[in-house]
Specification:
The structure is a homodimer. Chain A is α/β, with parallel strands linked by helices. Chain A has 2 domains: about 170 residues, Rossmann fold; about 160 residues, Rossmann fold. Chain A is about 45% helix and about 15% strand. In chain A, helix 2 runs antiparallel to helix 9 and helix 3 runs parallel beside helix 7. The longest helix of chain A has 25 residues. The radius of gyration of chain A is 19 Å and the shape is globular. Chain A starts with a helix and ends in an 18-residue tail after the last helix. Chains A and B meet through helix 3, strand 2, helix 11, strand 7 and helix 12 of A and helix 3, strand 2, helix 11, strand 7 and helix 12 of B.
Chain lengths: ~350, ~350
């Protein structure tokens, strides 16, 4: 079994451990932030962690109303821009904690008076030393170059951060996430079988929106780095503003199709894609009956009812269970193509850029 | 001649007109903003205008130090998040002024107390009515579905907005931009000839960084919508964090290679791509001698010296002259492939999404 597949399977345990072991310090942070809430949140990350940051952007803006900006590190590291950072919370996310540019953003921000949070797997890392508050993704060392368990672990930490910032998410709800991850893993044999059909896919598109937009980037990244598929990624809305012109008969499009506010636009785009005779595959769950009514060969159904109850957005807890079939798909497709997903050509585990 | 090509050729005139006719009202806005500077800028746009917004993000953060966030419209339009918008300047950019979601973001923000700016081609549009301050891109009506002159016009307006926000950009410097655009247009016959070589390209990657990162998205979008090429887009840094694994012999990669702080990383990535035997093409100008020293078949040289003098970033004025050869390339490649760049399949000029 590839390390990637092993690490995909470790996710329920890693999620549970992250939640349990970090909760006490999150409660402390909650008190500090309640006394003096930030007016702006800046998220800094690269690669898979940057995809987690994209999730954080949607999650934090939707559940706390605090504006969030995804840092463009070069503005600090290359152009040397000076920011005030007044009332700003800067959050750096890095699996290794050794991402040079991410760390530099955090350091500059802290020197300029920002409050800083680090999210990393490595308690001894530079990031862990630099951040005022450091939280650990308890996933154990990640050996595959393709990140999986650290991504979902980072998502869990971001739910906890939203909670610390006053979001109406209950810890009891988060405790269900490891079980949902476990259920998503039950799809393994089905997905292994399905992957064969995509063996000769050279390019494709992943589409999704809102809280699952980050998953779009993460699924595409897995397809690029482990399967060498040229995988584009778009929000459903942006896809209609131009790129849909690429789609021709049998063009592969993968869609995240959660219940809730994004479903009408996902449904609309899927209908348009069917008219264009594209080859579509939707990831959904048991709480979106309209998606389940589609041709079953075009649906991956996570065997759980994931919809959250109002006033929470229905799709709030779908991102972790939805990325798991996508990870399994990439791992299976790599094997199908005779590639080793743990050692993609050209890459190494820690990438240093400025 | 395609409308797209006609409109590409109109850019020097449109840029000059936009600068001249909007300057007085920009001076007024400058006084208002100086009296009460914003602490956060939120940019809202879709499609090509969203690429212009990405440029605005880098430009404004680099030259003013005010944090900028690119709005994710669904957070307002679908999830209905409530923001405070205190001390926030919200800028909506839309060629038609009829982009439903962009307008809704602006409207909500204005109701919640934000100051608002609109940038559009259409003085009678909904956006022009909604925004407190509206500025017009004086490019005349754009008839091709593929936006060109409105993109560079929007970039010009963003330079003016940076000026209004206190950036050390002199209007005299901006007056040179139409001439640089004119010079870039001189590349037309050369690019028409080069395009033939790419006739059978089905996918590729566009790479760049910093102030030219927006051009990466815009070039890729033109390749997708007019040539149906599956064109990925990455910052040079993100490309190294995974996607470079896709690159194999003869894999086409287009790079924006301005002088200044981003050049060392662009150079490094190009060297890595040459080792991987990728097929590279760089867009640069006469002020980057190291880029010009490369194999000339791999270089498009804008015939002008574009480097700005310190303390301005050297690449400050490269984005408009650099996107022009990319636009010409897409228009030529579409013709080479027997496609009509003015009427991409599946698309219409105004796209409404929520």
């Amino acid at each position: 079994m590839s390390k990637m597949r092993e690490e995909i399977l470790q996710q329920p345990v890693a999620l549970d451990k992250t939640l349990r072991l970090e909760l006490r310090r999150i409660e402390k942070l909650k008190k500090i932030l309640q006394a003096n809430p930030p007016q702006l949140i800046l998220l800094a990350a690269r690669g898979t962690s940057d995809n987690a940051a994209t999730f954080g952007r949607y999650l934090l803006e939707i559940t706390t109303g605090i504006p969030v900006s995804l840092a463009a590190p070069s503005i600090f590291t290359l152009y040397g821009a000076k920011f005030s950072f007044k009332q700003t919370l800067v959050v750096a996310i890095s699996q290794s904690g050794e991402s040079t540019d991410t760390n530099l953003v955090l350091q500059r921000a802290r020197e300029a008076g920002a409050r800083t949070v680090g999210i990393t797997n490595e308690p001894q890392s530079t990031l862990a030393q630099l951040a005022e508050h450091c939280f650990l993704v308890r996933a154990g060392r990640e050996q595959s170059v393709a990140a999986t368990k650290t991504y979902t672990g980072q998502l869990m930490m971001l739910y906890l951060l939203a909670y610390a910032l006053g979001a109406k998410i209950q810890i009891e709800q988060l405790r269900r996430v490891p079980e949902w991850a476990e259920r998503a893993l039950k799809l393994e044999p089905e997905i292994r079988e399905r992957a064969g059909r995509y063996c000769f896919m050279r390019h494709g598109v992943v589409v999704g929106r809102g809280l699952n937009y980050a998953n779009v980037y993460e699924f595409a990244l897995k397809l690029m780095e482990t399967c060498y598929v040229v995988a584009e990624r778009f929000s459903s809305a942006d896809f209609l503003h131009g790129p849909i012109a690429m789609v021709e008969t049998a063009f592969p499009v993968f869609l995240f199709a959660p219940p809730g506010v994004t479903w009408p636009s996902t449904k609309e785009i899927r209908e348009k894609l069917l008219q264009l005779r594209a080859d579509t595959l939707m990831i959904t769950d048991q709480s979106n009956p309209e998606a389940l009514a589609a041709d079953r060969r075009q649906v991956i159904e996570v065997p759980a009812k994931l919809a959250a109850r109002a006033p929470l957005p229905a799709d709030l807890f779908t991102p972790i269970p939805y990325i798991i079939p996508a990870q399994l798909f990439a791992a299976s497709l790599a094997e199908e193509k005779g590639l080793n997903p743990d050692q993609p050509r050209t890459l190494s585990k820690v990438t240093r850029t400025l």
